[in-house]
């Protein structure tokens, strides 16, 4: 009779996630994960064929946590501003997961990372912009892209300990950029739906 498997795939995935959450993706090796699980590497490779599969599992969990952050509401802010604040809060609270999702070289890099522009997150984010501003979908995408780039800069500085800003300063900066982009679109008549 084969030995009973005592460590579940879910437990391995959970431990891998926590390891990356605390120490970063470079700390995730078969040995370090086995040490965290207090076992040999055999159960890891029983459930996951390769360490890339373990990494993919960690990335899925990180994306799920990020999606929870993005959807948090903030009674003191408009929905779209709350999304920017939540993005920055994710970088502040989950530095290593933020780096994993947004600060590593990717072969599939596009205008915006897939995680933000995903089927799960994009409609929610764009609807928040459109509901507040009455903009067309194209203009809402433009506002989103420009505010996301600004938010990403702040979040990156926080995640790498390059700079730190108080919540009040962050709120003010996001408001200024949001209003500035809207004002530019309105004052120049540079609206996507008029082109």
UniProtKB/TrEMBL annotation:
SUPFAM superfamilies: Homeodomain-like, Tetracyclin repressor-like, C-terminal domain. Keywords: Transcription, Transcription regulation. It comes from the Bacteria. InterPro entries: Homeodomain-like_sf, MT1864/Rv1816-like_C, Tet_transcr_reg_TetR-rel_C_sf. Residues 81-161 form the HTH-type transcriptional regulator MT1864/Rv1816-like C-terminal domain. This is TetR/AcrR family transcriptional regulator.
